[in-house]
Amino acid sequence: MKTLIIVSHPEIDESGSQQYLKEALPDSSDITFHHLESTYPEGKIDIEQEQQLLQQHDRIIFQFPLYWYSSPPMLKHWQDEVLTENFAYGFGGNKLKDKELGLVLVIGMPEKEYQVSGNEGYTLSALTTPYQAMAKKTQMNFLKPFLIFQFHYMEESEKMRMLIAYQQYLMIENFDTLRAKENWFLQQLDDMDEKFLPDGSQFILDQIKELIEDNRMELDEIQMYLEQAGGSL
Amino acid sequence: MKTLIIVSHPEIDESGSQQYLKEALPDSSDITFHHLESTYPEGKIDIEQEQQLLQQHDRIIFQFPLYWYSSPPMLKHWQDEVLTENFAYGFGGNKLKDKELGLVLVIGMPEKEYQVSGNEGYTLSALTTPYQAMAKKTQMNFLKPFLIFQFHYMEESEKMRMLIAYQQYLMIENFDTLRAKENWFLQQLDDMDEKFLPDGSQFILDQIKELIEDNRMELDEIQMYLEQAGGSL
Known about the structure:
The structure is a homodimer. Helices cover 45% and strands 13% of the residues of chain A.
């Protein structure tokens, strides 16, 4: 699965959160990082190039700071220019069909304000309706948004947990299932190069892998038991 | 009451609907027409000037074609630049408080598609959530949006009716009440200059005024009767 991260931020070099996310990107040929404002400093978008990029990827991510409950203007400009009739919708316009659309939103206010009687007063599910409608129009599957609230107030351990979830959001199919996350962790453990690990840590890692696999087997057994029980009722 | 119409359209001269609306603007010092893309062709916004404009008006209208369920990028750029902290929100940021925010949306698809199981699938009430949230944040009163569906398919008589409603949307306080509309029509009739009317038409206009006023008196009487009946129950 190939993932295209379309980032829109007018001053990305000044943004601690965007720099943090960028540095955490896995070094993988399956991930393309694409910052619009630096690709097109004059605002003139190469439509054909963008449409090719879209077609070469399976999961499309819009990543941006939520300003006035929407994206910076450059991403909107990109939408208006690139998502043309007969490409994204309308007659023959099925080039995005069955691809995934995800949002990575960096949000300045706390999560609790985005509900009725909160200071912001509206949920992120409501505020992102225009993107849901875009996914519907282009026949894309809309993923649960990945929301980062108040990055600058996060502790280091929270940031680390967020990063892992972010990498999973970018790379895993069905990223929201326990099984997919397990497999992802096992893969990460396999990818660690013994040479760079302190003495004895390989043994610990092997133990962790075994533990994850044991847990999985137990869960599978319970699952099987439940299914049989259900069938005999 | 002073109304500021902030129009965003990247190619306004090519837009039949925007030209039609513009030509229909009442010649009134209470209405300011402000097209962003032609005011700032380089995209560099004069923030102070824009904030002054806002403060000089009571009703602020965002008028634009609905592309990908939102505004053209220029209006978003305007929001991000002009609606600064300490002006529009935050400490001391009450400069828009109690003003009205209205939307005039020109929409290419038919109204019936903007509902569950319609082709667009989402209501305009849901799609405009980001503007409702902006009104909340800035303590503005959000008006019912003024929606123009499929302008190019409208018959001449429909366009005329739409224009009258548009002028009322711009100019009348409580534009959605019958009484306000009546007063507006009476004012329009008063403003007609006898010199330019065909012979005998002044008599007809006077009859119409009398009819409207009679209707109003009858409605007032019914209203009074209902209130008394309610009080004696």
